[in-house]
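User: My collaborator sent over this chain with a note saying "see what the structure looks like." That's all I know about it. Can you take a look?
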Amino acid sequence: QVQLVESGGGLVQAGGSLRLSCAASGSIFSINAMGWYRQAPGKQRELVAAIISDGSTNYTDSVKGRFTISGDGAKNTVYLLMNSLKPEDRAVYYCNAVCQLPEGRYLEVWGQGTLVTVSS
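Assistant: Without extra context I'll predict from the sequence alone. Here is the result:
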């Protein structure tokens, strides 16, 4: 059983900042990648940012230069620092991880989601 626990969402004014955290726990051999997705009302879930085990990162174009994803391997935790927030960043943000379990198989896990609201 692997779980992801997110924290850090909330209400912020446009131009402000928030930092999201996501900690993975359970029977994990290794984590291949972790990322953040978001889903705004009436829209499909989209990838915001991801980090893989070699440290390389990927961002959707709309957040490049504003958001930074980072990870702490020792804590199985990923962070998303969101600066210069815009009203269009308002969404439920979901943490995602691709883990290898001790028995060798891979598992994709989702967090419960955390709401980010940006007021104009």
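A starting point for your reply to your collaborator: The mean pLDDT is 97.
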